[in-house]
Amino acid sequence: MKKALFLFIINILFISSTVIAYAGEKVYRSDIAVLIDDMPVESVVIKDEVYIDIEEFKNFVFEVSDEGDSYRFIPDASENYFQFLPAEEINVLKNSIVIEEIGEAELSDIIGIDDKNDKYALYEFNGDYFIKLRALEGKYGSLKWDARNRRAYFNITEGMLDACFASKLGISISEDERLGLANKNSDIEYLSFRGQVENYIPNGIGIVEANYTNGDAVILKGNFPEGVAEGRFISYKTNENEVIVKSYFGVNESMLNGSYLYIDYNENTRFEGNYELGTPVGKQRKGIINNEYLFGYEIIDDEFCGLKLYDKPFEKLISFCEIDENEQK
Predict the structure, then answer these.
(1) What is the DSSP string of 249-318?
(2) Contact 113, 121 (CB under 8 A)
(3) Neighbours of 62 (CB within 10 A)
(4) For residue range 88-127, what is the model confidence (pLDDT) as tens digits?
(5) pLDDT-based confidence at 173, cuts 50/70/90?
(6) Nearest to 318 by CA among 230, 245, 232, 186
(7) Residue 202 to residue 191: CA distance in whole angstroms
(8) How far apart (Å, rounded) are the C-alpha atoms in residues 72 and 111?
């Protein structure tokens, strides 16, 4: 009897250890779309949470490095370039998506570590390492959920710029603290700057605002060392407080540099690509906004050659040096 009981216990322990060795968390393909800075990224669902490949952050103002026992991801706004999802993964109708289990993921011994030395759990799936999107909310951007279209928007560039603005200048700057800028564009009625200023020259984080004679307004957020735009930017063009154009781009030596996204809500079009000192490089694409698709748009031209038409949309705003003399009095 004792021998039988002993064998029974051994069998139970063996079965338990086998389950522990091979059991993982189920991974699902879902109808949830994730866009970072309005660009689509692949995602999976693990334990009812959305996860993305940590390597995706290389496309969005982060330096990501494999340290062996960890993945380091550090903000780096100097430049970044898009690694596009294939058009066939974007041109997917929402009503065609099948929610299904696609495998299992193991909680990895490798962890994610950010620039503040905060640590993040990673799941390994098909040789890649996935981080929970919600874990980054509030630290490196704002996460917005579109329940109707089942899309998660993670705004990194604007979130980091706004956080930098708030830490250096406070939540807001009064109208009296605006700096008027010399304006050589007859279409612009008034050009101003709010942000870090030194000797009446923009010098650091700030916002350029242009009010046009036709009622349009442009807001440009970014860094302006010694009055010259440098790094990553986000811009809005509005009419009667409605956003009609939104764009993300990088600037180096007063020229577009790095990834570029231009969304025209009036025309329902979007253009995405990469630049190297003002010259388009690699693939440039054109899409049509359409909420019937997973990511809210469809690629209609995967080898677009006309993006150069937009290569300096805010030329008058990103290379200013002159200040309105009236503002110095």
Answers:
(1) EEEETTEEEEEEEEEETTTTEEEEEEEETTEEEEEEEEEEE-TTBTTSEEEEETT---GGGGS-TTHHHH
(2) no
(3) 23
(4) 999 999 999 999 999 999 999 999 998 889 999 999 999 9
(5) low
(6) 230
(7) 13
(8) 9
Cα four-point dihedral sign 144, 35, 211, 254: positive
Contact 113, 70 (CB under 8 A): yes
Could you tell me if residue 208 is left (phi over 0), alpha (psi between -120 and 50 degrees) or otherwise beta? beta
Report which secondary-structure segment, H or E, holds 10: helix 2-22
Tokens of 320: 């200013």
pLDDT, tens digit, 9 for 90 and up, residues 215-237: 899 999 999 888 888 888 999 99
**Assigned token pair, 250:** 């990088």
pLDDT by residue (tens digit) across 6-61? 343 334 333 333 334 346 899 999 999 999 999 999 999 999 999 999 988 888 87
Enclosing H/E stretch for 168: helix 156-169
User: Is residue 73 a contact partner of residue 114, using CB atoms and an 8 Å limit?
Assistant: yes
Which tokens is 316 given?
């008058």
